[in-house]
Protein backbone atom coordinates (compact mmCIF):
# COMPACT_ATOMS: atom_id res chain seq x y z
CA UNK A 1 0.00 0.00 0.00
CA UNK A 2 1.28 3.53 -0.76
CA UNK A 3 0.02 4.81 2.63
CA UNK A 4 -2.42 3.87 5.39
CA UNK A 5 -4.83 6.70 4.48
CA UNK A 6 -5.38 9.38 1.84
CA UNK A 7 -4.89 12.23 4.34
CA UNK A 8 -3.65 12.94 7.83
CA UNK A 9 -5.35 15.61 9.92
CA UNK A 10 -2.99 18.42 10.92
CA UNK A 11 -5.54 20.97 12.14
CA UNK A 12 -9.24 21.60 12.60
CA UNK A 13 -9.63 22.38 8.88
CA UNK A 14 -6.21 21.30 7.58
CA UNK A 15 -5.11 17.97 6.11
CA UNK A 16 -1.81 16.61 4.79
CA UNK A 17 -2.04 14.49 1.63
CA UNK A 18 -0.27 11.13 1.45
CA UNK A 19 1.13 9.07 -1.43
CA UNK A 20 -2.29 7.38 -1.74
CA UNK A 21 -3.64 10.55 -3.41
CA UNK A 22 -0.96 10.55 -6.11
CA UNK A 23 -2.05 11.37 -9.67
CA UNK A 24 -1.06 8.95 -12.45
CA UNK A 25 0.43 11.81 -14.46
CA UNK A 26 2.36 13.78 -11.84
CA UNK A 27 3.68 12.47 -8.52
CA UNK A 28 3.54 16.02 -7.13
CA UNK A 29 -0.19 16.32 -7.83
CA UNK A 30 -3.28 14.64 -6.41
CA UNK A 31 -5.84 12.53 -8.24
CA UNK A 32 -9.22 14.28 -8.22
CA UNK A 33 -11.04 11.57 -6.26
CA UNK A 34 -9.56 12.03 -2.76
CA UNK A 35 -9.96 15.86 -2.72
CA UNK A 36 -13.56 15.43 -3.93
CA UNK A 37 -14.17 13.06 -1.03
CA UNK A 38 -12.47 15.40 1.44
CA UNK A 39 -14.75 18.27 0.40
CA UNK A 40 -17.73 15.93 0.70
CA UNK A 41 -16.56 15.09 4.21
CA UNK A 42 -16.39 18.77 5.19
CA UNK A 43 -19.90 19.39 3.86
CA UNK A 44 -21.30 16.34 5.64
CA UNK A 45 -19.62 17.42 8.88
CA UNK A 46 -21.13 20.90 8.56
CA UNK A 47 -24.68 19.48 8.79
CA UNK A 48 -24.02 16.56 11.15
CA UNK A 49 -27.11 15.63 13.14
CA UNK A 50 -29.46 17.82 11.07
CA UNK A 51 -31.00 15.04 8.96
CA UNK A 52 -29.63 16.45 5.70
CA UNK A 53 -27.88 14.44 2.95
CA UNK A 54 -25.98 15.51 -0.17
CA UNK A 55 -28.27 15.01 -3.14
CA UNK A 56 -26.09 16.69 -5.74
CA UNK A 57 -22.50 17.90 -5.62
CA UNK A 58 -20.62 19.73 -8.38
CA UNK A 59 -16.85 20.13 -8.17
CA UNK A 60 -14.58 22.43 -10.15
CA UNK A 61 -10.89 21.56 -10.44
CA UNK A 62 -9.21 24.96 -10.63
CA UNK A 63 -5.81 23.60 -11.67
CA UNK A 64 -3.41 20.83 -10.65
CA UNK A 65 -3.99 19.92 -6.99
CA UNK A 66 -0.55 19.92 -5.34
CA UNK A 67 0.59 17.45 -2.74
CA UNK A 68 1.02 18.83 0.75
CA UNK A 69 -1.18 20.57 3.29
CA UNK A 70 -4.63 21.72 2.23
CA UNK A 71 -7.32 23.64 4.10
CA UNK A 72 -11.10 23.61 3.67
CA UNK A 73 -13.62 26.38 4.27
CA UNK A 74 -17.38 25.75 4.20
CA UNK A 75 -20.07 28.40 3.81
CA UNK A 76 -23.85 28.21 3.50
CA UNK A 77 -25.18 29.91 0.37
CA UNK A 78 -28.87 29.13 0.80
CA UNK A 79 -30.05 28.13 4.28
CA UNK A 80 -32.97 25.80 4.83
CA UNK A 81 -34.19 22.92 6.96
CA UNK A 82 -35.38 20.76 4.04
CA UNK A 83 -33.21 22.04 1.17
CA UNK A 84 -29.88 23.82 1.63
CA UNK A 85 -27.06 24.95 -0.69
CA UNK A 86 -23.53 24.75 0.71
CA UNK A 87 -20.17 25.73 -0.76
CA UNK A 88 -16.77 24.31 0.18
CA UNK A 89 -13.34 25.35 -1.09
CA UNK A 90 -10.12 23.37 -0.76
CA UNK A 91 -7.01 25.57 -0.83
CA UNK A 92 -3.42 24.42 -1.26
CA UNK A 93 -0.32 26.62 -1.00
CA UNK A 94 -2.52 29.64 -0.37
CA UNK A 95 -4.68 29.32 -3.49
CA UNK A 96 -8.08 27.71 -4.15
CA UNK A 97 -7.53 24.35 -5.86
CA UNK A 98 -10.99 22.72 -5.83
CA UNK A 99 -14.41 24.27 -5.32
CA UNK A 100 -17.63 22.42 -4.55
CA UNK A 101 -21.30 23.32 -4.36
CA UNK A 102 -23.71 20.83 -2.88
CA UNK A 103 -27.47 20.71 -2.61
CA UNK A 104 -28.49 19.02 0.61
CA UNK A 105 -31.98 17.58 1.08
CA UNK A 106 -33.72 16.32 4.19
CA UNK A 107 -34.22 12.60 4.65
CA UNK A 108 -36.18 10.36 7.00
CA UNK A 109 -36.19 6.55 6.89
CA UNK A 110 -39.48 5.20 5.51
CA UNK A 111 -40.75 8.62 4.34
CA UNK A 112 -41.38 7.54 0.73
CA UNK A 113 -41.71 4.34 -1.31
CA UNK A 114 -38.92 3.14 -3.59
CA UNK A 115 -39.77 3.65 -7.27
CA UNK A 116 -38.04 3.12 -10.61
CA UNK A 117 -36.86 0.06 -12.47
CA UNK A 118 -34.79 -2.41 -10.49
CA UNK A 119 -31.13 -2.44 -11.54
CA UNK A 120 -29.31 -5.69 -10.89
CA UNK A 121 -25.50 -5.40 -11.00
CA UNK A 122 -23.30 -8.12 -12.49
CA UNK A 123 -21.59 -10.48 -10.07
CA UNK A 124 -18.33 -9.39 -8.46
CA UNK A 125 -15.49 -11.27 -10.21
CA UNK A 126 -12.77 -13.01 -8.27
CA UNK A 127 -9.44 -11.32 -7.57
CA UNK A 128 -7.64 -9.98 -10.65
CA UNK A 129 -4.14 -8.66 -11.32
CA UNK A 130 -4.35 -4.93 -10.72
CA UNK A 131 -4.22 -3.15 -14.10
CA UNK A 132 -1.44 -0.66 -14.89
CA UNK A 133 -2.42 2.80 -16.08
CA UNK A 134 -0.96 3.18 -19.59
CA UNK A 135 1.72 5.85 -19.50
CA UNK A 136 1.82 6.08 -15.70
CA UNK A 137 4.41 4.73 -13.29
CA UNK A 138 3.37 1.30 -11.92
CA UNK A 139 3.66 2.54 -8.34
CA UNK A 140 1.27 5.52 -8.69
CA UNK A 141 -0.41 5.94 -5.35
CA UNK A 142 -4.13 6.31 -6.06
CA UNK A 143 -4.10 3.24 -8.31
CA UNK A 144 -2.73 1.07 -5.50
CA UNK A 145 -5.12 2.53 -2.91
CA UNK A 146 -8.06 1.12 -4.90
CA UNK A 147 -8.79 -2.51 -5.73
CA UNK A 148 -10.17 -2.94 -9.25
CA UNK A 149 -12.07 -5.90 -10.69
CA UNK A 150 -13.26 -5.50 -14.28
CA UNK A 151 -16.37 -7.07 -15.77
CA UNK A 152 -16.07 -5.39 -19.20
CA UNK A 153 -13.60 -2.99 -20.78
CA UNK A 154 -10.98 -1.33 -18.64
CA UNK A 155 -7.35 -0.34 -18.64
CA UNK A 156 -4.87 -2.34 -20.69
CA UNK A 157 -7.55 -4.73 -21.93
CA UNK A 158 -8.24 -6.06 -18.43
CA UNK A 159 -11.60 -7.39 -19.70
CA UNK A 160 -13.22 -7.50 -23.18
CA UNK A 161 -15.03 -4.35 -24.26
CA UNK A 162 -18.79 -4.86 -24.06
CA UNK A 163 -20.96 -4.47 -27.16
CA UNK A 164 -22.50 -1.32 -25.66
CA UNK A 165 -19.03 0.22 -25.10
CA UNK A 166 -19.54 0.49 -21.34
CA UNK A 167 -16.68 -0.24 -18.96
CA UNK A 168 -17.93 -2.05 -15.87
CA UNK A 169 -15.50 -2.11 -12.98
CA UNK A 170 -16.07 -3.09 -9.38
CA UNK A 171 -13.94 -0.86 -7.16
CA UNK A 172 -13.11 -0.93 -3.46
CA UNK A 173 -11.40 1.83 -1.49
CA UNK A 174 -8.62 0.14 0.47
CA UNK A 175 -7.65 2.85 2.98
CA UNK A 176 -9.53 5.42 5.11
CA UNK A 177 -9.96 8.94 3.79
CA UNK A 178 -8.46 10.48 6.95
CA UNK A 179 -6.14 8.54 9.24
CA UNK A 180 -7.81 7.29 12.40
CA UNK A 181 -11.25 8.63 11.45
CA UNK A 182 -14.28 6.88 9.91
CA UNK A 183 -15.01 7.28 6.19
CA UNK A 184 -18.68 7.71 5.27
CA UNK A 185 -20.27 5.65 2.52
CA UNK A 186 -20.74 8.71 0.29
CA UNK A 187 -17.10 9.71 0.81
CA UNK A 188 -16.03 6.27 -0.45
CA UNK A 189 -18.20 6.79 -3.53
CA UNK A 190 -16.62 10.19 -4.17
CA UNK A 191 -13.11 8.70 -4.00
CA UNK A 192 -13.90 6.60 -7.09
CA UNK A 193 -16.28 8.91 -8.99
CA UNK A 194 -13.51 10.87 -10.75
CA UNK A 195 -12.29 7.59 -12.30
CA UNK A 196 -15.21 7.58 -14.77
CA UNK A 197 -13.16 9.45 -17.36
CA UNK A 198 -10.07 7.27 -17.02
CA UNK A 199 -11.65 3.81 -17.08
CA UNK A 200 -13.92 4.61 -20.07
CA UNK A 201 -11.39 6.31 -22.37
CA UNK A 202 -11.60 5.03 -25.96
CA UNK A 203 -8.51 6.78 -27.35
CA UNK A 204 -4.97 5.77 -26.31
CA UNK A 205 -3.56 7.62 -23.30
CA UNK A 206 -0.15 7.71 -25.00
CA UNK A 207 -1.48 9.96 -27.77
CA UNK A 208 -4.43 11.85 -26.28
CA UNK A 209 -5.28 14.09 -23.33
CA UNK A 210 -8.66 13.85 -21.62
CA UNK A 211 -8.93 16.76 -19.20
CA UNK A 212 -12.04 16.89 -16.96
CA UNK A 213 -12.27 20.39 -15.43
CA UNK A 214 -15.17 19.32 -13.26
CA UNK A 215 -17.12 16.48 -11.72
CA UNK A 216 -20.82 16.22 -10.98
CA UNK A 217 -22.42 13.53 -8.82
CA UNK A 218 -26.14 13.12 -8.18
CA UNK A 219 -26.75 10.62 -5.40
CA UNK A 220 -30.01 8.86 -4.62
CA UNK A 221 -28.38 7.14 -1.67
CA UNK A 222 -24.90 6.25 -0.42
CA UNK A 223 -23.58 2.74 -1.16
CA UNK A 224 -24.30 0.10 1.46
CA UNK A 225 -21.36 -2.19 0.65
CA UNK A 226 -17.62 -1.59 0.31
CA UNK A 227 -17.58 -2.76 -3.32
CA UNK A 228 -19.06 -0.30 -5.84
CA UNK A 229 -19.63 -0.89 -9.54
CA UNK A 230 -18.72 1.95 -11.90
CA UNK A 231 -20.53 1.58 -15.24
CA UNK A 232 -18.74 4.23 -17.29
CA UNK A 233 -18.67 5.37 -20.90
CA UNK A 234 -17.33 8.40 -22.71
CA UNK A 235 -17.43 9.95 -26.15
CA UNK A 236 -15.62 12.77 -27.89
CA UNK A 237 -16.51 15.09 -30.76
CA UNK A 238 -14.30 16.19 -33.66
CA UNK A 239 -14.04 19.70 -32.19
CA UNK A 240 -12.16 18.28 -29.20
CA UNK A 241 -14.90 18.20 -26.58
CA UNK A 242 -16.49 15.23 -24.89
CA UNK A 243 -18.39 13.78 -21.96
CA UNK A 244 -17.71 10.96 -19.53
CA UNK A 245 -20.64 9.64 -17.54
CA UNK A 246 -21.31 6.71 -15.28
CA UNK A 247 -23.75 4.96 -13.02
CA UNK A 248 -22.60 3.83 -9.58
CA UNK A 249 -24.14 0.67 -8.16
CA UNK A 250 -23.63 -1.48 -5.10
CA UNK A 251 -24.84 -5.00 -4.35
CA UNK A 252 -28.39 -3.66 -3.85
CA UNK A 253 -28.63 -1.64 -7.08
CA UNK A 254 -28.34 1.95 -8.26
CA UNK A 255 -26.77 4.58 -6.00
CA UNK A 256 -25.68 7.59 -8.07
CA UNK A 257 -24.92 9.17 -11.45
CA UNK A 258 -21.62 10.79 -12.47
CA UNK A 259 -20.93 13.29 -15.28
CA UNK A 260 -17.71 14.99 -16.40
CA UNK A 261 -17.08 17.47 -19.25
CA UNK A 262 -13.92 16.72 -21.23
CA UNK A 263 -11.33 18.64 -23.15
CA UNK A 264 -9.92 16.14 -25.71
CA UNK A 265 -6.65 17.02 -27.49
CA UNK A 266 -3.55 15.34 -28.93
CA UNK A 267 -0.56 15.16 -26.61
CA UNK A 268 2.43 17.26 -27.43
Automatic annotation (TrEMBL):
<dbReference type="Pfam" id="PF20789">
    <property type="entry name" value="4HBT_3C"/>
</dbReference>
<dbReference type="InterPro" id="IPR049450">
    <property type="entry name" value="ACOT8-like_C"/>
</dbReference>
<dbReference type="Pfam" id="PF13622">
    <property type="entry name" value="4HBT_3"/>
</dbReference>
<feature type="domain" description="Acyl-CoA thioesterase-like N-terminal HotDog">
    <location>
        <begin position="22"/>
        <end position="104"/>
    </location>
</feature>
<dbReference type="InterPro" id="IPR042171">
    <property type="entry name" value="Acyl-CoA_hotdog"/>
</dbReference>
<dbReference type="InterPro" id="IPR049449">
    <property type="entry name" value="TesB_ACOT8-like_N"/>
</dbReference>
<feature type="domain" description="Acyl-CoA thioesterase-like C-terminal">
    <location>
        <begin position="129"/>
        <end position="264"/>
    </location>
</feature>
<dbReference type="InterPro" id="IPR029069">
    <property type="entry name" value="HotDog_dom_sf"/>
</dbReference>
<protein>
    <submittedName>
        <fullName>Thioesterase family protein</fullName>
    </submittedName>
</protein>
